[in-house]
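Consider a protein example.
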Amino acid sequence: MFQIKTLFTIALLVLGMAVKSQESLMIEGATGAFYLNHKVAPKENWYSIGRLFNISPKELAAYNKLNMTQPLKIGQELKVPLTASNFDQQGQSAADESLVPLYHKVKEKEWMFRISTTYNKVPIASLESWNHIKNDQLKAGMNVVVGYLKVKTSLSAFSGKAVSPVVAKVETPAPVKQEPVNTKPEPPVKTEPAKTEPVKVEPAVVKNDPPKQVVETTQVKTVPAPVVNLPNTKGGAFKRLYEESGKSIAGNAGVFKSTSGWNDGKYYALINDVPVGTIVKISYSTTNKSVYAKVLGQLPEMRESQGLSVRLSDAAAAELGAENGKFYVEVKY
């Protein structure tokens, strides 16, 4: 028994030396199919690698489309799937488990919102807490923690790289109040038929002709039907859904073209780091006017977005009384 424990300890030490020589664990793949790359080291087999990454050897072999009866070769590259058993984004583990940071390399013009979306919409507050940085401190080439490899402390040499992640307090948005829907059919709008008025046309006079004869003809002169005024949409149709949580952003605003809002009062906005679907209140102090808009997504990565905190649909900007170009606004949500 003593010899078995000694051999197992030696094996862990060998694996530990191999692990220490490796760089940070970088996540590969796409949403829903993340994995880690592993290069087979001397004396490793399906079972030792399974213990290292807390995954069954059978699942590991199947993921790589290999058979467990096939011996592994030194330097052979394997893909280790990240599943519910070994991948964590809550910062929580059992007493016998350790959490090892998994990293993503920041690309050019990539912000927390994009990284959050890529990695299962992990809360931005968690990303900031795990990495001790804010959104505006991100730089291209930086490695940021986006999750954790969950391993058994006594079985995996990776446990030497384990950390105790700071669990961020993620605010839960207040439920949106839903007003009762009026199911009664609206009364039909009465429209008067177009009026027609007879128009007299005098014939041209021809010299040396018999005495003039007046011929009366009738032409149709169309008078448009009365326009039915839309209900008052001052501030926008989303005003009744607005719920303020005490958060705000101030900065320059720009405009994008949209067919919405001109007739139905539905205004839209593009803002970074604000959840899609959030109703925001946008105030323009120059005219002392405000509108309520729904967030469609983040600011597009283009030259026109530089220096902007928000972009509004043109109908929203028109109601604010803002001119073309940049204008300073306050956003609350």
Observations:
- The radius of gyration is 34 Å.
- The CA atoms of residues 63 and 215 lie 93 Å apart.
- The domain at 239-332 is CATH 2.40.40.10 (Barwin-like endoglucanases).
- The mean pLDDT is 80.
